[in-house]
């Protein structure tokens, strides 16, 4: 069940439901912002809808807002929880804990606090990293996992240092983001240049200006938000070591791996097949790195079909035909 709000204050200001631009019509009639105390930190979540629980976790450098175009339809079948993880948006920004093992524990604690013992999850980009960690470390909590548009450090093959120009343009931010402090010094005051380039070069269809300005504005307004945005990458040594250990525990739950044809493509499913036995692959045409915003109708259709057995109360054991084919 969904527990009532606690004594925590109502989230306000940029990043809350009441202070983000261009939401779908009647969005605020279904969804509200709330703070959730996990016992270790305070997370900001946007919740609403009816049905079994569905956790939505976006990636770098986005917030819960990345899911806005899908949330109204999903809320017809699910209790939707779109969350800002630690370091993001209106959530707390501690100095540490950005490895995926800790991020996964944060999500389990969040869902515990909301009264959800079992749930399905959709993770994009860094949210895909966390989704893999959660499925591997807490297999009793997830029913189904959909992931999109990422390689997983420590699981996916590492690209060569002297790769192609295309690969370098796509991946150079990994090395930059892992630096100790010079990246904050170089990006501070130039957030629109740095993060704006990320959005412009990784999308096949340009994201709306209001969305890009919102994401970048959140990072530019708070030095701690900028610092935290790099911490996910600074924790990669720990995350890689964790993922190398996780490979010994293959995932048995159904996994939907989504790639944009103009960015990661089929490599998303190739990555997940290194870790999971039941992987369905989907490559979205005319889509880059941001499927929930570039091709929301196709993304919604894929999630609706994949999550239907979970919505209807069926488990993987109840489904007679095996998954695992490419779509």
TrEMBL record:
<dbReference type="Pfam" id="PF00561">
    <property type="entry name" value="Abhydrolase_1"/>
</dbReference>
<dbReference type="InterPro" id="IPR029058">
    <property type="entry name" value="AB_hydrolase_fold"/>
</dbReference>
<feature type="compositionally biased region" description="Pro residues">
    <location>
        <begin position="1"/>
        <end position="12"/>
    </location>
</feature>
<protein>
    <submittedName>
        <fullName>Hydrolase</fullName>
    </submittedName>
</protein>
<feature type="region of interest" description="Disordered">
    <location>
        <begin position="1"/>
        <end position="22"/>
    </location>
</feature>
<dbReference type="InterPro" id="IPR000639">
    <property type="entry name" value="Epox_hydrolase-like"/>
</dbReference>
<feature type="domain" description="AB hydrolase-1">
    <location>
        <begin position="52"/>
        <end position="294"/>
    </location>
</feature>
<dbReference type="InterPro" id="IPR000073">
    <property type="entry name" value="AB_hydrolase_1"/>
</dbReference>
<keyword id="KW-0378">Hydrolase</keyword>
<dbReference type="GO" id="GO:0016787">
    <property type="term" value="F:hydrolase activity"/>
</dbReference>
């Amino acid at each position: 069940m969904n527990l009532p709000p606690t004594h925590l204050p109502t989230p306000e200001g940029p990043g809350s439901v009441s202070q983000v631009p261009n939401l779908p019509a009647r969005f605020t009639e279904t969804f509200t912002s709330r703070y959730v105390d996990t016992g270790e930190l305070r997370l900001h979540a946007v919740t609403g809808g009816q049905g079994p629980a569905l956790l939505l976790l976006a990636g770098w450098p986005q917030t819960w807002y990345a899911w806005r175009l899908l949330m109204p339809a999903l809320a017809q079948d699910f209790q939707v929880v779109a969350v800002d993880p630690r370091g993001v948006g209106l959530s707390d920004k501690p100095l540490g804990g950005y490895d995926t093992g800790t991020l996964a524990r944060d999500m389990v604690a969040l869902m515990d606090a909301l009264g959800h013992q079992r749930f399905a999850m959709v993770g994009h980009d860094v949210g895909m990293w966390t989704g893999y960690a959660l499925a591997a470390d807490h297999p009793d909590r997830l029913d189904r996992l959909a992931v999109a548009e990422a390689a997983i450090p420590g699981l996916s093959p590492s690209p060569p240092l002297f790769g192609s120009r295309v690969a370098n343009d796509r991946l150079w931010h990994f090395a930059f983001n892992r630096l100790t402090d010079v990246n904050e010094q170089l990006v501070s005051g130039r957030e629109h240049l740095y993060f704006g380039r990320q959005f412009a070069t990784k999308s096949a269809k340009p994201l709306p200006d209001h969305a890009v300005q919102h994401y970048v504005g959140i990072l530019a307004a708070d030095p701690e938000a900028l610092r935290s945005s790099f911490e996910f990458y600074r924790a990669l040594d720990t995350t890689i070591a964790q993922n190398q250990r996780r490979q010994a525990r293959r995932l048995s739950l159904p996994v939907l791996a989504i790639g944009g044809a103009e960015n990661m493509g089929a490599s998303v499913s190739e990555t997940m097949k290194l870790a999971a036995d039941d992987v369905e692959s989907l490559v979205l045409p005319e889509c880059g790195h941001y499927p929930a915003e570039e091709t929301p109708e196709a993304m919604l259709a894929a999630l609706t079909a994949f999550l239907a057995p979970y919505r209807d109360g069926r488990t993987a054991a109840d489904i007679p035909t095996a998954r695992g084919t490419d779509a």
